[in-house]
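[job 0412] stage=complex_fold ligand=adenosine-5'-triphosphate status=START
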Amino acid sequence: MNKDLFLKAAPILNQIKSHGYEAYYIGGSVRDYLMGRPIHDIDITTSADPDEIETIFEHTIPIGKEHGTINVVFNHENYEVTTYRAEGEYKDHRRPDEVFFVRDLYKDVERRDFTMNAIAMDTDFNIRDYFGGYEDIQKQRIVTVGEANERFNEDALRILRGLRFKSQLGFEIEGHTYEAMKNKMPDTGYLSIERIIVELVKLLEGKDAAEVYPMLLALDFFKYVPFFKDYDMTQVEIDEPLTLELLIAILLFKQPEVNGALAKLKISNDRKKQIQRYVQLFEQLGTLNGKKQLRVLVYDYGLSVLSYILTMQATLEKNDIPLSHPLIFNQKTIEAIYENLPIYQRSDIAINGKIILETLNRKGGPWLKEALRAIECAIINNELSNEQSEIIKWVKTNV
Ligand code: ATP
Ligand code: MG
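[job 0412] stage=complex_fold status=DONE, emitting structure tokens
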């Protein structure tokens, strides 16, 4: 049931209350509960200050103590407990340097971004809703707490968060809030790219990504984001949710990377590798002709990458990325190939570079890499059996 996570966390709130402080559920979990959506994690807000929370509970981790957040470990689960806080001056249109701990719930919810995220709920599931958040949830609209221009002026990330929530929840953005997004979009240029990427990833994977993407274009969002600003983002068409990696791969396939531009995004190396693999895959899919090549492709990319690409076929076609004929490249075929692959990775080969060098009595060099690849492909296509003696024989005649 939807209430389960709250009931599991209730003893924490009750314990805080037994010490004379207030405690509420707050933020995304309350919003999602009121919407009937699945709840992923529970945030707790309290009038107790971080030192007091540390005294009340046996097992705590001071993950963000200076900002008021203590992790309380309870029944082997982690709960973020954050002290009511008000925020100081905003500089540079991003997070304030200073926060003040306060004892008044109103002050805490007042600094939150949207009305739907500013609803506090107690352990009896009664809500404290100072800004009409529940009504906005029912009317499915995204409205800032207080004057939108001011709130976006303080922290421009809220603009992107608003668009991300629209994509995830399918809500409308209230008129005044949208106007302010338009006005304040240039301030997103002050944000760290890491914070932008977190929101962009969620936005693109949200159920209404296809509707929000044109809004990003209309609001000139990409003009203020490193890397993206050097590309013509109108060339990418989106009509379903997709991963950030796939979006960028589509972009780079159509408009090749300007020297090291991807570095500006400061995404993990894993993400970059994934992007490059997609781009390579697109190149190979365009020229794929026949079962042998497909077997190697299944071996090289694995089932999950290829399956994802197949589910995204419509988007790829829309973006003029040529896929091979469905009779050659389809889910059933790649699954059948995958199940029957004789090897799944290079270390499965019954020989290695060292043994080859010893048997052939040759010096290493680029030829060795080519030889290993040739052996690999021959095994994948069952032209060579994966036994050391067979491979050595094969190497002697073919290399
Ligand atoms: P999600 O379901 O994606 O976790 P969320 O609403 O819980 O959504 P979080 O980023 O987890 O979002 O933030 C928790 C709460 O903190 C928000 O609901 C909101 O009240 C507040 N908040 C977060 N970021 C901001 C911000 N930039 N400005 C104002 N309030 C914010
Ligand atoms: Mg959250």
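The mean pLDDT is 95.
[job 0412] exit 0
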